[in-house]
Amino acid sequence: MLNATLLGTGGTIPLKNRWLSSCLISVNGHSVLVDCGEGTQIALKIAGHKFKPIDTICITHFHADHISGLPGLLLTMGNEGRTEPVKIFGPVGLKNIVNALCVIVPVLPFALEVHELKERKEFHSDKLIITPFQAEHSVDCIGYSFYLPHDRKFEPDKARNNQVPIKLWSTLQKGQTAELDGTIYTPDMVLGAERRGIKLTYCTDSRPTEGIKAAAQKSDLFICEGMYDTDDKLPQAKEKGHMLFSEAARLAKAAKAERLIFTHYSPSLDEPENGLENARKIFPNTECGYDGQKIALSYRD
Amino acid sequence: MLNATLLGTGGTIPLKNRWLSSCLISVNGHSVLVDCGEGTQIALKIAGHKFKPIDTICITHFHADHISGLPGLLLTMGNEGRTEPVKIFGPVGLKNIVNALCVIVPVLPFALEVHELKERKEFHSDKLIITPFQAEHSVDCIGYSFYLPHDRKFEPDKARNNQVPIKLWSTLQKGQTAELDGTIYTPDMVLGAERRGIKLTYCTDSRPTEGIKAAAQKSDLFICEGMYDTDDKLPQAKEKGHMLFSEAARLAKAAKAERLIFTHYSPSLDEPENGLENARKIFPNTECGYDGQKIALSYRD
User: FRET label pair with A266: which of A73, A194, A237, B223, CA 20 to 30 Å apart?
Assistant: First the structure.
């Protein structure tokens, strides 16, 4: 199972009733935090999350609403006694930004491993495979796809049919090849068909692009910015490098995603739900995300 | 009148029910913000304050809980269309800190005037006279006294007795000297006795010192850190450069302050009021400050 929490759903400035956009993705006791604006550490507490499981932080870009909470979060993680390293990923320039912000964080009791994503190559955080992709904003900006693989099923009948000695079953089940008395046994001899994992794609801040469509392909959940609710705001969206609800819905449809949730609302949107009907005409399985929303995604087979 | 709002009363880390220590001091449509931790801009909104009147920001020291909200606040002030300069005062090193934090604040539509307080000389923000004083913390730290002078009363009987021509009354009332037909007229000829202004002293983070006692002398309001409620926490207070409630109360008594309000509670203090009785034995007019508390101070005569 993969659990996602929308810690905040606001864009640009923190409001008294909406935290800045940030998402916590958790699998098996390990968590990845996407973005960390002012107040994200408070939103984490309000949502009932601990800081300890956060091993990886993915930064989309260097606008303040996505990263200004980083020094405070790291300090709090240190105050809570963390000693294990924390990995931070983000656009080129991340090292300078982290060093500058941490001028008010003199000493941390854990190592910070800062990775600048010069290329959009996948990386791992525990069992999660994370694939960064290019967004199109006023500054260099990265979206992230998270994929949790699903182990192939062990099939004892198949193992017996293939005459695999029982003492090798466990080795082959783990995906390792084994040899006994001159015969080679492979995992295929005991495992069923490939199974679909869980895919979550997170994208903010960006205009819609073909690259995002490709990255979000067949996502179980596509969390996408919805800065503006109505189509008459297209000029602002283009000017500021953001999306309309309808544009995000079109991306979700084109990507054949299962479910779309909006985040990163303009501070001017008091009731994002007002724009939902229009978006659902394009992509029916659309929701307006809200602060503290928890989404549990399970394997489908 | 001088209005003070305790925007937050927490120390070290922002909690879900307590903002970080910060205080807004307002006189006549002009405001001074003391410290700006993570979330202070949200606390300002919750307390119903606008950003526009904030002309001056006083930073006590460079620990994250006192300054990490600065870049976000400045951005929001810019988003709200500010064009007038903002003055920031703080310890030596302030320019480097502000420059580093503002790496995520590319452009502001107003000028930032950064003043490093090499000496503890008074400065002005509109009608307020602000006197910085040395605190004793683990890093260089400054407390601030705010003094709002009280104009001397205009006394028409005195003016008549001194045979001051009526057309000079207004000039003299403003404190200016005037000459008419070879005679020199001075403000003393129309003004009453000196009147007491309003004094507010704000001090966090610090151990108690003679310097603080002197700075807080005869304050109408002394807002002082109360990191720890009970006297058994003296070892922590000494180790971390903070005060007990009882130490702050002794300072208030020695300084002959009128009223003491605690702020900057340790995150471990769920109910600061539990420590109040002990403090009131030393200085009866003691209160536990709380987030959003508004205090209006009037002239006494």
Answer: A73
Distance CA A256, CA A148 (A): 18
Report whether A117 contacts A132 (CB < 8 A): yes
CA nearest to B67 within chain A? A104
Residues whose CB falls within 8 Å of the CB of residue B210, separated by 6 or more in sequence, listed in order: none
| B65 in A contact zone (CB under 8 Å) | yes
How many Å lie between the alpha carbon of A235 and the closest alpha carbon of chain B? 18
> Tokens 């993969």 — which residue?
A2
pLDDT for A301: 75
A38 interface with B at CB cutoff 8 Å: yes
A65 counts as catalytic: yes
Cβ <8 Å between B16 and A76? no
pLDDT (0 to 100) of residue B300: 86
CATH H superfamily, domain A2-152+193-297: Ribonuclease Z/Hydroxyacylglutathione hydrolase-like (3.60.15.10)
CA-CA distances (angstroms) from residue A275 to A192, A224, A232, B177? 45, 15, 12, 67
Contacts of B96 in chain A (CB under 8 A): 103
CA dist., res. A70 & res. B61, Å (int)? 19
- Segment B133-147, tens digit of pLDDT: 999 999 999 999 999
The answer to whether A107 faces chain B, any CB pair under 8 Å, is no
pLDDT in tens, A158-186: 999 999 999 999 999 998 999 999 999 99
Question: Model's pTM, two decimal places?
Answer: 0.93
Q: What is the pLDDT of residues A244-293, one digit of tens each?
A: 999 999 999 999 999 999 999 999 999 999 999 999 999 999 999 999 99
The rounded distance, in Å, linking the Cα atoms of A195 and B11 is: 50
Give the burial class of A281: count Cβ atoms within 10 A of its Cβ; 0-12 exposed, 13-18 middle, 19 or more buried.
exposed
Joined tokens for residue B261: 């309000």
Answer whether the bond into residue B55 is a cis peptide, omega within 30°: no
Residue-range domain boundaries for chain B: 2-152+193-297
In chain B, the residue whose alpha carbon lies closest to the alpha carbon of A105 is: B64
Interface test with B, best of A45, A68, A97, A99 (most B CBs within 10 A): A68
B42:A46 CB<8 A = no
